[in-house]
Amino acid sequence: MSKQKKVPTRNIYVKLLINLIYNAMIDKIPVQVIGCLRPGIITVIAFPGVGMLDGGLLMELPTEIIPVELRMPNSEFIVVCNRESGEFTQVLSKDSSK
């Protein structure tokens, strides 16, 4: 009998994404808006399409840093993260990030 290879679970991918963000190895994070689930907070999926079942990682961003035209559900944009502080400093449209 051959041993089956263990397939990493979603939790491993989520932990990896969290580590990449919090260790500031990534300064531009692609996101897709889910919606405004709490006042003053926009809930987004970071790294949409990475992982299982459309993947990604849920994140909450303050409404004031996101331009009005990008707050609609399914809007996609880039969030710029400060490498030193880990804070989100700027939002770029998906087209301007190239």
From TrEMBL:
- Look up the domain of life of the source: Bacteria
Q: What is this protein called?
A: Uncharacterized protein
Supply the source organism's classification: Bacteria, Bacillati, Cyanobacteriota, Cyanophyceae, Nostocales
